[in-house]
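Protocol step 4 of 6.
Sequence for NADH dehydrogenase [ubiquinone] 1 beta subcomplex subunit 7 (Drosophila guanche) entered exactly as in the expression construct, tag removed. Do not edit the line below.
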Amino acid sequence: MGNAVNHYLKPDVTPGPDVVPSFDPMLGFESRKERVMIATQEEMESVKLPLENRDYCAHKLIAYQACRSDKFPFVYQCAHEKHEYLTCEYEDYVLRMKEFERERRLLERQKRLNKAA
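Step 5 output, structure tokens:
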């Protein structure tokens, strides 16, 4: 909600939803791990995972769906796998929001430095 207002008021320092980061990912960090996909493309295709679910948590979703099919009428036994998947999705969401905020702050910093120069 606030992002739409901020995008209207400060369009030059608010990154859009589909913008690729324009700053070095290591800027301000001494060491930072790169995120890697654990599930391969072949695994995701073999279980017919929809495109919208092919993210960094796909391996947890594959395990959850396998558990549901193995223990079918008693799917409540897969609560642990479901919790792991939903936790992964939440942590991915938080990380994406942190990256968005980092990009926004770096754009504001760049604008401020350009104005001072």
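Step 6, annotate. The chain has four helices and no strands.
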